[in-house]
Amino acid sequence: MGGRESSPFQAHVDMQAVNKWFGALHVLRDVTLKVRRGERIVICGPSGSGKSTLIRCINGLEVHHAGRIVVDGVELNDDARTIDQVRCGVGMVFQQFNLFPHLTVLENCTLAPIRVKKATRTAARDLALHHLTRVRISDQADKYPSQLSGGQQQRAAIARALCMNPKIMLFDEPTSALDPEMVKEVLNTMVSLADEGMTMLCVTHEMTFARQVANRVIFIDAGRILEDEAPEAFFDTPKHDRTRAFLSQILH
Amino acid sequence: MTRHGRPPPMFHDWTNTIATIVLGALLAYVAYSFVQWGVVHAIWRLPDGASSIMCRDVRGEGACWAVVVERARFMLVGGYPIDEQWRPYAVCLLFVALYAASLVRTLWSRWLLAFWIAVPVVAVVLLRGRWLGLTDVPSEFWGGLPLTFLLSTAGFTVALPFAVLLALGRRSTLPAIRALSVGYIEVVRGVPLITFLFMAAVMFPLFAPQGVNVDKLLRAQIAFIMVTAAYLAEVIRGGLQAVPRGQYEAAASLGLSFWPAMMLVVLPQAFRVSIPPLVNTFIALFKDTSLVIVIGLFDLLGAAKAVIVDPKWVGFGVEVYLFAAAVYFAFSYAVSRFSLRLERELQRAAGTA
Known about the structure:
Strand content of chain A: 25-35%
Order of helices and strands of chain B: HHHHHEHHHHHHEHH
Structural class of chain B: mainly alpha
Shape of chain A: globular
Number of strands of chain A: 10
Number of helices of chain B: 13
CATH class of chain B: Mainly Alpha
Strand order of the largest sheet of chain A: 6-7-8-3-9-10
Oligomer: heterodimer
Largest sheet of chain A: 6 strands, mixed
Helix content of chain B: 55-70%
Radius of gyration of chain A: 18 Å
Largest interface: A-B, 28 and 23 residues
CATH architecture of chain B: Orthogonal Bundle
Mean pLDDT of chain B: 86
Low-confidence stretches of chain B: none
Low-confidence stretches of chain A: 1-8
């Protein structure tokens, strides 16, 4: 998986010795991670290992307590304006979809472009329909989220994030809440995104997806990054016992 | 007998059957007596020139609705000058139209919200008349139903934005804002409404700087707004708690900052959940406006009380109070039926999720 490696010095996401605590619980320990433009990273690990927290720090949904996070050249700090600026360039897809239930799928997609990017209604609508077509649910545009299947809702959520033209996409267990037959349609959407060169960080246990799409697989346990390898090396020759134990549990 | 071939529950066994028969007989007796008193032996109008002696002759046997017929105008519009009485009637129509429009789901929009603000303003302007070139009628002469409508509607509309701020403040991460909101809500909720009215009517003028003279009605209105804001804040806080954290996060991750996220994503959902308790608070407020009587304002109930101390009609309190109760009931019942229907509709909408 070569991908489009640009200069290794030009990190798209740069985390330096990031630490975070939830009260007394040390959830991220000296996490250092550089993601290059167009790279696809899969993050896995046991539950409670801090993998979700890690990607939620990148768009400021969680505050880091020590270390530096630079996203597309902007360093995250306490300033709400900086955080909003970073969020405009970083799309996020949640496990529970988190579509806005009181708005139609189309309105879900046009809300932020109109309110944040000051797009005109027509421009926002055209953009939304473009992305909804891309995730193959443009025929559902005028329905409410509750009228859609889980897989359709998740694809709508991906389209909503894409409408902000993000340079980086974060996926927080995007298929974990889906019925098995719907997992594939969402993964296919993510694969086509990857093919278009999007920088992606994806927390998932879909190891087939990791093999197929990821440039690097990161294994995190107790808040520490234990492995950071190309998928072949990660699956074939894991370095740590913890990784081996984890892999033996999720691969049959 | 029901479809299932079993007797209905009130006839399931002997105790139930006896209780049903006894209570049924009692109810029938009460209904019969009421019809005898209120319809059969009632006097609806006094013949021209007749005095209320005629009514006194049938006391205990028949109702004297003549008092209601004769003084209905006073009860409905209070002491408003008779030559100008189209104004309070027009105001009543405006409010009734506003409430009726609010019952129609398809009319729900920003415009309806605007009308909830506009109608009380128009009502005040029309009742006062001075700014329209009509006869100036100071608020001391306003009374009856327009006053009830005005106090409750303006109280609710103005309190709502404050309530939203208080509810958000109570959930704020900033300790000072949280403490202020909690303090306000708890103190105001912990003090009876009547105390606030007394404070507004009696204490405010004592402590107000010299020369500052705020209209008594306005002071009462402010007291209502302050109290309603505290109650509504708790209702809205409940609604906010029902909005999942993921909604805040999704809004934030799209780059929406605090206020847009609140206004566009969180509050619309919170209000949807809060509609039944909001309606409930409005009904309570509608009836509580009758407390302004303690500070000498004549709303519907106040005007009714003034009628029964009139020497001509002393002793016909029951008829007058029944009339006032019927007016309150008509509005409260309509609103509560509406709220029930709304609740069912919202449940159906949620059920498709």
